[in-house]
């Protein structure tokens, strides 16, 4: 649910795995990407060569500007983001803490899944339709230029049907499956341990000082 | 008849005298302390002096770069994120395995596949391998090794002179000194252990064997100019136990064995290594396996168990990752050593990258090249933490125990605790390889899809 506008640094200060030193590193990275400006635009991500090879590059960059991810009240796309927004997106990739209780873990998980959901749901209507699913599969398989569009399509269709069967069960012949809502999305991921897969770990720089 | 001119004889005399002086110094300041296990503290003074010089050098670079308005490269070659060096296939398999529980040989597209690319993308945005430039704001130390610094062009005359002096010192003074020491250490080890091997078994033999081993390892430590700080030495491994440590380089063995008396475990090699191994086992019961035996896990486990159950035998030294890791993370520990049922003494080793990167990338450098690189660095500075002993609890299995030990080591050494198996590829993914990865992914999904639709 939207609403609580937690300042970003508190998101991090409650997690000891991201220290102020690491936030400094991220800040430096931000300044490098923004070429010392206060905000970043989509074009700034073009300066990362390694990102070129990622098939869902477009979706990832888009995610940074998606107002739903930026925890803003309005909807749509932002034109530019500042460092606080940058950190907000990064916070979706925090690793889990040892001392999290059930409620925190659940919220943590929902946040990560919401981020993924927004990546699939490109028209922001709260549902992943067949076409949107097809788009994702096509992008993921876009690394192979010899791939027929039909193959990507049939894969997406098959996967979508399976998703439907999980979410809705047996459908009648005249029932139309509108699309995967967020609740259905959560259902699909039940029992699957995503928290350990969707995180980025920082190196601990401090122990280097202990060497002498 | 060839008459030596007085000048020539003077040169010869001088040469003779300087070599004698050098060797006397060597003996007095390095070898004798190694034999008795004392230290003059020369290496610590050396290290502090070096640090001051590095700081000065870095200031010069930054000042120079600021004047010319160039951005600087950051010397932390490892970056700020622990990148899991797994391949696409392995990671997707792992994601799916932990997920739907479907059979792995039906690789259809799954919703979770997007994780891999999503995470890789975010990692790249956070910290790019190719462009690691940051504007110079704080002091980052350059260690006068051009292999670690790419800003080499942006320096002043004074710095170049200093760097040149550094090269001279390292290659013409330190390197021969170190090679001489290493040679002395290894030959003493081989002859010493062979001689001790002829003695009848008993307390005398044990005592001598221990001291021969320790002495030679200490000489080798000095041969690398390793400056080691040991923490919590009261937790050092005891007889009948297993000492496990994270693995960064072959030097780890020397570092640990110069502070304790261990039974080594390993495969018998050919060449010089084999000679050393065969000599060592004469003096005390190390556990060497033939190449064929290494594959037989039951045999290995059996021999190790036998060794451990004999309380008179030394603690075994094992590196459960199985391969050298880059000292920023700890990979999965192979569970073999943890099934044996002995007390485990974990040890964390952390190298300071400032003085030289100790990681042995065996796919990039051979052993000899690696040793030469180590011997032409300034020093190897590291910290060793002896952690309190751990035993397997009744309700945990070998894998859980192994993970528990691994986390303890990772936490102490400030290393990231990773789940993946260290036997996977370590090298940086080349561009063409990345494209291949993408094609591979599509092949994985589509190829099988087509097979099925055909059948």
TrEMBL record, chain A:
GO terms for MF: calcium ion binding; protein kinase inhibitor activity
GO terms (BP aspect): cell differentiation
Name of protein: Calcineurin B homologous protein 3
Keyword terms: Calcium, Cell membrane, Cell projection, Cytoplasm, Differentiation, Lipoprotein, Membrane, Metal-binding, Myristate, Nucleus, Protein kinase inhibitor
Main location: other
Family: Belongs to the calcineurin regulatory subunit family. CHP subfamily.
Gene3D superfamilies in the cross-refs: EF-hand (1.10.238.10)
Domain EF-hand: 108-143
GO CC term, one of those recorded: nucleus
Parts forming coiled coils: none
Entry membrane topology: Lipid-anchor
Keyword Kinase: no
Transmembrane segments: none
Native source organism of the sequence: Chionis minor
Protein's cellular compartments: Cell projection, Lamellipodium; Cell projection, Ruffle membrane; Cytoplasm; Membrane
PROSITE patterns from the UniProt entry: EF_HAND_1, EF_HAND_2
Keyword Nucleus tagged: yes
SMART domains in UniProt: EFh
TrEMBL record, chain B:
GO biological process per UniProt: phospholipid biosynthetic process; triglyceride biosynthetic process
Pfam families hit by this protein: Acyltransferase
SUPFAM superfamilies in alphabetical order: Glycerol-3-phosphate (1)-acyltransferase (SSF69593)
Transmembrane portions of the chain: 12-42, 155-173, 179-200
A cellular component annotation (GO) from this entry: endoplasmic reticulum
GO molecular function terms noted in the UniProt entry: glycerol-3-phosphate O-acyltransferase activity
Subcellular location: Membrane
PANTHER family registered for this protein in UniProt: GLYCEROL-3-PHOSPHATE ACYLTRANSFERASE 4, PHOSPHOLIPID ACYLTRANSFERASE
Name this polypeptide is given: GPAT4 acyltransferase
Annotated source species: Chionis minor (Black-faced sheathbill)
Name of the gene this protein is made from: Gpat4
């Amino acid at each position: 649910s939207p609403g609580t506008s937690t300042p970003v640094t508190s998101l991090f200060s409650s997690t000891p795995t991201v220290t102020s030193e690491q936030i400094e590193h991220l800040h430096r990275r931000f300044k490098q990407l923004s070429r010392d400006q206060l905000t970043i635009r989509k074009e700034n991500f073009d300066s990362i060569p390694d990102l070129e090879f990622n098939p869902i590059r477009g979706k990832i960059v888009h995610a940074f500007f998606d107002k739903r991810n930026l925890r803003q009240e309005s909807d749509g796309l932002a034109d530019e983001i500042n460092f606080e927004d940058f950190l907000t997106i990064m916070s979706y990739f925090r690793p889990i803490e040892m001392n999290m209780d059930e409620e925190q873990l659940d919220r943590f998980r929902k946040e990560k899944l919401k981020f993924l959901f927004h990546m699939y749901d490109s028209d922001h209507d709260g549902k992943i339709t067949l076409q949107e699913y097809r788009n994702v599969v096509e992008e993921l398989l876009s690394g192979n230029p010899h791939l027929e569009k039909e193959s990507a399509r049939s894969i997406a269709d098959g996967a979508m049907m399976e998703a439907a069967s999980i979410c809705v069960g047996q459908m009648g012949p005249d029932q139309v499956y509108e699309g995967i809502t967020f609740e259905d999305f959560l259902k699909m991921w039940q029992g699957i341990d995503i928290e350990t897969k969707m995180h980025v770990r920082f190196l601990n720089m401090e122990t280097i000082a202990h060497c002498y | 008849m060839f008459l030596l001119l007085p000048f020539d004889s003077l040169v010869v005399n001088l040469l003779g005298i300087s070599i004698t002086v050098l060797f006397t110094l060597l003996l007095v300041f390095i070898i004798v302390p190694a034999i008795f296990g004392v230290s003059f503290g020369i290496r610590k003074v050396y290290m502090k002096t070096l640090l001051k010089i590095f700081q000065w050098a870095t200031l010069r670079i930054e000042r120079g770069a600021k004047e010319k308005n160039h951005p600087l490269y950051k010397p932390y070659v490892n970056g700020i994120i622990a990148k899991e060096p797994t391949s696409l296939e392995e990671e997707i398999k792992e994601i799916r395995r932990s997920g739907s529980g479907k059979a792995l040989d039906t690789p259809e597209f799954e919703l979770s596949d997007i994780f891999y690319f999503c995470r890789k993308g975010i990692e790249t945005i956070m910290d790019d391998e190719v462009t690691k430039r940051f504007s110079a704001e704080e002091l980052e130390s350059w260690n006068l090794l051009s292999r670690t610094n790419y800003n080499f062009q942006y320096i002043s005359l004074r710095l170049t002179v200093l760097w040149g002096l550094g090269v001279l010192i390292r290659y013409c003074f330190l390197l021969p000194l170190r090679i001489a020491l290493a040679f002395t250490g290894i030959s003493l080890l081989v002859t010493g252990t062979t001689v001790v091997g002829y003695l009848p078994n008993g307390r005398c033999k044990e005592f001598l064997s221990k001291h021969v081993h320790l002495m030679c390892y200490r000489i080798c430590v000095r041969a690398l100019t390793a400056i080691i700080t040991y923490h919590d030495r009261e937790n050092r491994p005891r007889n009948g136990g297993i000492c496990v440590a994270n693995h960064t380089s072959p030097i780890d063995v020397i570092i640990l064995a110069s502070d304790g008396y261990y039974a080594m475990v390993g495969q018998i090699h050919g060449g010089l290594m084999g000679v050393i191994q065969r000599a060592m086992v004469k003096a005390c019961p190390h556990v060497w396996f033939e190449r064929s035996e290494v594959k037989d896990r039951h045999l290995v486990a059996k021999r190790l168990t036998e060794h451990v159950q004999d309380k008179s035998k030394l603690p075994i030294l094992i590196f459960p990752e199985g391969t050298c890791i880059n000292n920023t993370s700890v990979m999965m520990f192979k569970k073999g050593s943890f099934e044996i049922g002995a007390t485990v003494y974990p040890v964390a080793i952390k190298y300071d990258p400032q003085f030289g990167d100790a990681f042995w990338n065996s796919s990039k450098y051979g052993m000899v090249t690696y040793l030469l690189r180590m011997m032409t660095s300034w020093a190897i500075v590291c910290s060793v933490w002896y952690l309190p002993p751990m035993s397997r609890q009744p309700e945990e299995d070998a894998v859980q125990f192994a993970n528990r030990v691994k986390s303890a080591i990772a936490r102490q050494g400030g290393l990231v605790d990773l789940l993946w198996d260290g036997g996977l590829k370590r090298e940086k993914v080349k561009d063409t390889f990345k494209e291949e990865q993408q094609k591979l992914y599509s092949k994985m999904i589509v190829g099988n899809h087509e097979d099925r639709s055909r059948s």
